[in-house]
Amino acid sequence: MNLVISPPKKCYSVSGTVSLPGDKSIAHRAAIVAALTEGESSIQNFPDSNTCQATLKCLKQLGVPITAGRAKGEIRITGVGLKGLKEPAGILEAGGSGTTARLLCGLLAGQPFFSVITGHPVLRRRPMGRVVEPLRRMGAVVLGRNGGDLLPLAISGGMLKGIEYQLPVASAQVKSAILLAGLFAEGPTILTEPIPTRDHLERLLKTAGVTIEFSNQLVRLTPPQTGINPLELSLPGDISSAAYFIAAALLLPNSKVIIKQVGLNPRRLGFIRILQRMGGKIEITDQYQASGEPVGTIIAETSELTATEITGNTIPYLVDEIPILAVIATQAKGKTVISGAEELKVKESDRISSMAGELKRMGADITERKDGLIIKGPSRLKGATVDAQGDHRVAMSLGIAGLLAKDKTVIKGADCISESFPQFEKILKQLIK
Q: Is the Cβ–Cβ distance between 150 and 182 less than 8 Å?
């Protein structure tokens, strides 16, 4: 499927108020935690993205009852307890979801049965050794291609021991996988991160009654001796999805977008802080706490932006937003330098290469480096035929670039957007004036 953006005679602008589907990072983790509780959990505003649905399908294969709730976007999960998961009859399919694959590796490592997990061809090229190595240290038997670094993975779990482990890379997925395995281990699991990453699982486990301490770069989990409590959640809007509409509001003339009930986890706000540093007019209002997560309203409007430098210590706080930040940087005055972003090379695509190549087709002054990008602006973008490279975040970022461009932009392979945000095009059209 192609996404076609044809500019009007006058420049686009965007305005309006929107609410977004639930945060995908929280959704994956909430579904897994709910599956391990004793009782029925309700999760509202659960996203219908392919990635989150992959997690639900795998949980169903493991014997977890999951049904639609009464409210739109609600799911209800009947927890089977810490000892109630069943050996799957077939191979678990993570689709294109790295989060599903890595988190389920941690969950399966603690189960006294055999399981196999795989994914789409692109996911089978992404590194899994960073998860497999600590799980093996805990006692799980994990076999796979390239010594266990690539899917499919075959896991024989159970009889785990807690470990003290220093994560070699800043990865919330790796951290979450080890913590899920730690629920089934003998003794505490203690993790140290090189840089603090998103802590959604820690907050969910605490809400469910698990003994877990976390602050700065240290996490300590004590495995529960009894059952854990069901969840009653309404997921906040996904701030990574909000990023595209915030970008459009900042870059297009006479624009103002209000995004309500969006998640404001401090470890996800790097994108907002960078934009404010660049001169972006962004206001956060109506803040409150819901199920352990900060939530509020983001208001963004047309701004004159100046270039900035984004370094490695900042990347974990905005790793999903680098592609749209690259688009924003094409319109900022001066030279924006992004470095320390090697992790982007092993996402759904090599996002450094993808964004450099496709934005260059649109006339951007952009240079690819091995760990990031150099972008000089402002550039007058032109319409072009570009390729999403099978990457949902590349596709949506190019969609926003198309709003800025002179002449028609055609984004090939834009159907990958449904992996994370099926409503993207519909919401964008609602905001365009």
A: no
How far is the C-alpha of 251 from the C-alpha of 12, rounded, in Å?
10
Residue 162 carries which side chain, given as an amino acid letter? G
The per-residue pLDDT for range 143-164, each reduced to its tens digit, is: 999 999 999 999 999 999 999 9
- The answer to whether the beta carbons of residues 396 and 424 sit under 8 Å apart is yes
User: Do 155 and 199 belong together in one domain?
Assistant: yes
The reply to whether 150 and 254 lie within a common domain is no
Q: Do 274 and 131 have their domain in common?
A: no
Tally of domains in the chain: 2
DSSP letter assigned to residue 141: E
Domain hosting 347: range is 3-21+236-431
Dump pLDDT digits (tens) for 215-230. 989 999 999 999 999 9
| Boundary of a domain, candidates 181, 209, 234 | 234
d(CA 198, CA 189): 18
Q: Please say if the pLDDT value at position 13 is more than 90.
A: yes
For residue 92, the SS3 value is: strand
- The alpha helices in 252-391, defined as continuous H runs, are 270-277, 322-329, 351-361
Q: Which of 114, 186, 102, 103 is nearest to 157 (CA)?
A: 114
Distant-in-sequence, close-in-space partners of 369: CB < 8 Å, separation ≥ 6: 339, 352
Read off the CATH number of the domain in which 409 is found.
3.65.10.10
Sign of the alpha-carbon dihedral angle for 390, 404, 258, 295: positive
Beginning with the edge strand found earlier in the chain, give each strand of the sheet holding 92-93 in spatial order. Answer: 92-93, 114-118, 150-156, 141-144
pLDDT higher than threshold 90 for residue 118: yes
Q: What is the pLDDT of residues 405-421, one digit of tens each?
A: 999 999 999 999 999 99
Query: Which residues are part of the catalytic machinery?
Result: 320
Q: Which of 324, 305, 418, 433 is nearest to 54 (CA)?
A: 418
Are 192 and 229 part of one and the same domain?
A: yes
Query: What percent of the chain is predicted at pLDDT more than 90?
Result: 95
Alpha-carbon distance 200 to 314, whole Å? 18
Residue 44 and residue 13 share a domain:
no
For residue 285, the SS3 value is strand
- Per-residue pLDDT, averaged over 291-317, amounts to 95
Cα–Cα nearest to 268, from 223, 319, 339 = 319
pLDDT of 70: 85
| Whether 107 contacts 160, CB under 8 Å | no
